Amino acid sequence: MSKDPQETPDTQNGTEATMPNQETSENDSDLKQKGKKGKAEDSLQEELDELKDKYLRLFAEFDNYKKRTVKERLDLMKTAGQETIQSLLPVLDDFDRAKKSAESDKSAEVFSEGVAMVYKRLYHILEQQGLKSMESNGIDFNPELHEAISEIPAGQAMKGKVIDTVEKGYTLNDKIIRYAKVVVGS
Fold first, then answer.
1. DSSP per residue over 114-156, as a string?
2. Separation between Cα atoms, residue 143 and residue 20, nearest integer Å
């Protein structure tokens, strides 16, 4: 064994020691691989975040769809008989006119008790289905509820108010199905 100052115990045994330059190149390649892995992980994380966002949006959209269809179904059930009830409104109007005519002192016709019972029963059944008549006489004219068919001169107290109702208005489950036709004071 020679005592060469550059010899190390590893070189004396015949093995070579790792040089500092070799360690640096290995560290650089490790860093490059880690950098590639980091970039790959970043891109995968971005893709994962994007897919999560799409999933959440799709889930929210589906949830809104379910709520909307449930609401539409409930509205449909509430107003399912609307056409039938609307077709019966002229019958109710005829009953009202006959009853009003029979109650008049000048009329010789009598509104029989049986007809009155049929009227009450029909009206009660329609009320159970959600039909309500709108009271209009004496209240302020509202174009969202009333249809003005004429104006007549009236005193200052009745100006802009409904003087007479020609045809009753009706709501079905708080939805107007027929506007009241009224005479308004001017």
1. HHHHHHHHHHHHHHHTTEEEEP-TTSBP-TTTEEEEEEE---G
2. 94
SS3 category, 93: helix
Phi (first) and psi of residue 182, to 5 degrees: -130, 165
Higher pLDDT, 179 or 108: 179
Number of domains in the chain: 2
Encode pLDDT of 50-104 as tens digits. Answer: 999 999 999 999 999 999 999 999 888 877 788 888 889 999 998 888 888 888 7
Q: Please give the Cα distance from 154 to 184 (Å, whole number).
A: 9
Taking the C-alpha atoms of residue 103 and residue 110, their distance in angstroms, rounded to an integer, is: 8
| Residue 139 lies in domain | 82-185
Going across the sheet that includes 169-172, the strands are 131-134, 169-172, 175-178
74-to-70, 80, 131, 173 alpha-carbon distances in Å: 6, 10, 17, 12
Do 126 and 45 reside in the same domain of the chain? Answer: no
User: Does 6 map to a domain?
Assistant: no
Measured CA to CA, the distance from residue 163 to residue 138 in angstroms comes to 6
Helix (H, G, I), strand (E, B) or coil at 83: helix
Residue 156: exposed, middle, or buried by beta-carbon count in 10 A (0-12, 13-18, 19+)?
exposed
